[in-house]
Design brief:
single chain, 144 residues, alpha+beta, 4-stranded antiparallel sheet, 25% strand
């Protein structure tokens, strides 16, 4: 009988010990939350930099599209009398003011002596004055 009691007592102590070790404890949860917080804090600068780059790339894409549109307009010019420098300001979807400057070199083309005239389109930010994009094309002018 004593042997049976000892066996039952041993089982009872095993089950009591295993009951305390079941599941996830409060300490494990707190430690995992701390690790998650440390990782999140480490990733915040990467996320902020990514947002800044995305905004910068959006402005660059808009400026490039504006420069290309202006070049398409310039390519319709066929005579020296059409060539004119100018400046136009516009605001993109994010509220950034962009200035489109068109610079034209002097034209001395004639019907007998056609000329390739360089035209430069530059887009600058209105708030910083920094050049966002700049491109040059050559127009083949055959008329005075």
């Amino acid at each position: 009988m004593n042997a049976i009691r000892r066996r039952l007592g041993a089982r009872g102590s095993e089950s009591a010990t295993s009951r305390h070790e079941e599941g996830i404890g409060l300490i494990e949860i707190v430690i995992s939350m701390m690790l998650l917080a440390i990782l999140a804090t480490a990733l915040i600068p990467v996320l902020v930099q990514g947002l800044k780059e995305a905004a910068s790339n959006a402005t660059l894409a808009t400026a490039t599209q504006l420069a290309n549109d202006e070049l398409e307009h310039v390519r319709t010019w066929t005579a020296c009398s059409d060539l004119s420098a100018g400046s136009v300001s516009t605001t993109d979807a994010r509220g950034v003011v962009l200035t489109i400057d068109t610079a034209v070199e002097a034209c001395s083309a004639t019907a007998e002596n056609p000329e390739a005239v360089p035209v430069t389109v530059t887009v600058t930010r209105g708030d910083t004055g920094k050049v966002v994009t700049s491109t040059t094309t050559y127009l083949f002018i055959t008329e005075p």
